[in-house]
């Protein structure tokens, strides 16, 4: 698994997962429990992971749909 993105924006990961799913790319969200524990202050990022072989395609899908992030 490779990290596709890391963010504290609670809307970005659901958007990215929906776009990836529509293209048949599986993804997995990490650090969900840690970000829940810290409450709503948004200091702990969540990570979205994809298979290594899907990383380049996943980045392209997000870029083509206007999703901008560092990574």
UniProtKB/TrEMBL annotation:
It holds the Pfam family DUF2007. Residues 1-64 form the DUF2007 domain. It comes from the Bacteria. Signal peptide: none annotated. Gene3D superfamilies: UreE, C-terminal domain. This is DUF2007 domain-containing protein.
């Amino acid at each position: 698994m490779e990290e596709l993105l890391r963010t504290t924006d609670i809307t970005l990961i659901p958007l990215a997962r929906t776009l990836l799913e529509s293209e048949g790319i599986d993804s997995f969200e990490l650090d969900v429990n840690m970000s829940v524990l810290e409450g709503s202050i948004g200091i702990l990022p969540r990570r979205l992971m994809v298979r290594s072989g899907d990383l380049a395609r996943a980045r392209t899908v997000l870029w083509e749909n206007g999703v901008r992030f560092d990574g």
